[in-house]
Amino acid sequence: MKPFIVLALCCSFFSSKANPLPFEFLDCDDPDVFKAVDAALKKYNGDRATDNQFALYMVMEAKRTAGSVTQFYVKYRIKETICATEENKLWQDCDYKVPAEAKTGECTAQVHMNNTEETSNVLQDCKIFPVAPKITLTKATCLGCFHPISSDSSEVSEILKQAIQKFNRHSTEPALFKLVEIKEAKIQVVAGWNYIIKYEIKETNCSKDQFQDLTPECKTISRG
Ligand SMILES: *[C@@H]1O[C@H](CO)[C@@H](O)[C@H](O)[C@H]1NC(C)=O
Ligand SMILES: *[C@@H]1O[C@H](CO)[C@@H](O)[C@H](O)[C@H]1NC(C)=O
């Protein structure tokens, strides 16, 4: 059996069902979420001595550890403002820079709020993106372009796992097939995310009669 290439396409792959951790998802407009994001963003601005302040642009995702009122996980987007950091203004009082000059960023933060002390403990990672190119025409035609992404990413492996499961369930082959190699992974940003992943699968020594799904003992067999 010759190995062959399959194409997987997946839209907006940000479902929570693959996440077994005991989190509860919160509404991004929840006042507690705003407090957590505010604390995280103030910390981010406070830690940078130079450049301008960033202001909140959008809360992407918010959850907290189930049963806890103080432990938050938030993902939010920020945009550069016209306020210099040393002005010490509140970010809420700062206007965004014009789009052609504003840096943007995305932060993932873990925030522990201490409501009695009115303090917070923030662990976060922010990625800042450079100013968008000035030639908006190029940008417009390129919305929807595919960009290569790392084939090691957890999104890619989760998509592939599901795609191969689906393939095995529906194929007419007597044996289960298994991933051999990821050839290429690309992402397209449109209204959501489209992934295109090219990968190679090979027949294993587990027959569908004996096995419902792939197990570690299923090894690929090289024939032909
Ligand atoms: C809040 O901070 C105080 C003093 O640092 C501490 O004693 C208390 O346990 C904290 N509360 C929470 C919920 O972490
Ligand atoms: C498949 O092959 C591996 C290694 O050769 C072996 O350990 C395993 O038991 C085999 N599985 C089946 C279902 O024959």
Gross CATH architecture of the largest domain: Roll
Q: Between the first and last Cα atoms, what is the distance in angstroms? A: 6 Å
What does the overall shape look like?
elongated
- Tell me the number of helical segments per DSSP (H or I, 4 or more residues long): 3
Widest β-sheet, arrangement of strands: 2-3-4-5-6
CATH top level assignment of the largest domain: Alpha Beta
Summarize the helix and strand pattern as letters. Answer: EEHEEEEHEHEE
Radius of gyration: 23 Å
| Average pLDDT score | 79
Task: Please characterize this protein's 3D structure.
- The protein is an alpha+beta fold.
- It has two domains: 21-129, Nuclear Transport Factor 2, Chain: A, CATH 3.10.450; 146-207, Nuclear Transport Factor 2, Chain: A (Roll).
- It is 18% helix and 42% strand.
- It has three helices and nine strands, in the order ββαββββαβαββ.
- It has a five-stranded antiparallel β-sheet with strand order 2-3-4-5-6, covered by helices on one side.
- Strand 5 and strand 6 (119-129) form a beta hairpin.
- 18% of the residues are buried.
- One 2-acetamido-2-deoxy-beta-D-glucopyranose binds next to loops.
- Residues 205-206, 217, 219 line the site of one 2-acetamido-2-deoxy-beta-D-glucopyranose.
- Residues 1-18 form the signal peptide.
- InterPro entries: Cystatin_dom, Cystatin_sf, Kininogen-type_cystatin_dom, Kininogen_Fetuin_HRG.
- One of its GO terms (molecular function) is cysteine-type endopeptidase inhibitor activity.
- It holds the Pfam family Cystatin.
